[in-house]
From TrEMBL:
Chief localization: membrane
Keyword Methyltransferase recorded: no
PROSITE patterns linked to this entry: MFS, SUGAR_TRANSPORT_2
UniProt cross-references to Pfam families, sorted A to Z: MFS_1
Protein name, UniProt field: MFS transporter
Positions of transmembrane segments: 60-85, 97-120, 126-149, 170-190, 196-215, 249-271, 283-303, 407-427
Keyword Hydrolase: no
Keywords, in A-Z order: Cell membrane, Membrane, Transmembrane, Transmembrane helix, Transport
Amino acid sequence: MAEDPAATPSAPTARSGREVRKVALASLVGTSIEWYDFYIYGLAAVTVFAPQFFPKVSSLTGTLAAFATFAVGFIARPIGGIVFGHLGDRIGRKATLVTTLVTMGVATTLIGLLPTYAAIGALAPVLLVVLRLVQGFAVGGEWGGAVLISVEHAPESKRAFYGSFPQLGVPIGLIASNAIFLVLAASMPAEAFTSWGWRVPFLLSAVLVLVGLWVRLRIEESSEFVAVKRTGSMALPLASVLRHHFPQVLCGIAMFTGITGIGYMAATYTIQYGTSSLGLPRAALIAIVLVVAVLEVPLILWVSAGADRWGLSRTIVAGSLATAVVAALFLPLLASGSLLLIAVAVAGARWASAPMWGPSAALAAECYPTEIRYSGASVGYQLGSIVGGALAPIFTTLLLASSLGMAGASAYLVLITLISGLGALAADRIVRRAGTRTPERTPA
């Protein structure tokens, strides 16, 4: 087949509404489980991992070490995006998604069985990092496949809406992980939770993965991919992405930098900062994140449905500007020590970024032809997650401890959210210039 064809070789078969909804639900269930696994690590990193796996260092160093193991998962995500993106473009979306789900489930369950530093010494944090790498590797391949199989099944006029279903896995995974941590923390003494209770959410992953597999094995392959597969698979999809579509990769990195950065600040950094620096009750902070995430789900669906009418980039830019305002106030509200103001900060960060997060899946998919779409969308998203999600908590912690203080850290958060809007604008311009968006998808 040609190295970089301008369009899909043959028209995909239209799917029934029932099939589209089934695929969207399968994407939602699978990504929810994957993000549950990913987020429980983040919660454990800010609550128990420092004393359990890094007991021989100072409080600040232990916190940074725990955040570093959290960030390691992001470092592995582009590798997973490359490997599973290649497989997804070569053999199919469905088979790849089953593999990523099993890989994530095994790694998460093993973390729940991992001995601590007190039991095996320095080997404990080493094994923790290895398993976190496996988690990152799996989720690196998950996002692209889940988004694409949902978007590619959807009718052209509703791709932002159905593309948002795998995006809902993030708040739903956040809800599930925070809920179980909250229940466990409330139902047992703090010493018991720190000693062994934190393992329960990790071990529960084994059950959830079985449910996810049952759902995913029942869906059909993307018809767009089947149409491309008939003409032959591209030998090296990533090579074509980097040679012919590198500007789209840069747009993806920019677009997802602020989205993931502010998201993880609200979801994980808030809990760590509130407990370690402000001495606030962990259960109250987890409850705030939980309630905010519950209300975030219908908001993402609403703005994503609207984005099919308003335009993808317009919606994302509006979210970027709104989130930049919240980002400027986020840390001062957090530092107030008031649970009410902290709730406002978390809600503002998560809800203002919903117009960015929901439609970004469809825009990322539009940037590439079907035969290299998995590789291209995955690499851009995962690299953006490193620049944003992985580094935002670390950079914020370091900036707050530096002479730049609150002002410098707040300016950094504002900057990365504005970068997301610019990335969406540039991506939209590329798509329009390439002519790959149908008139039905082009806003008036």
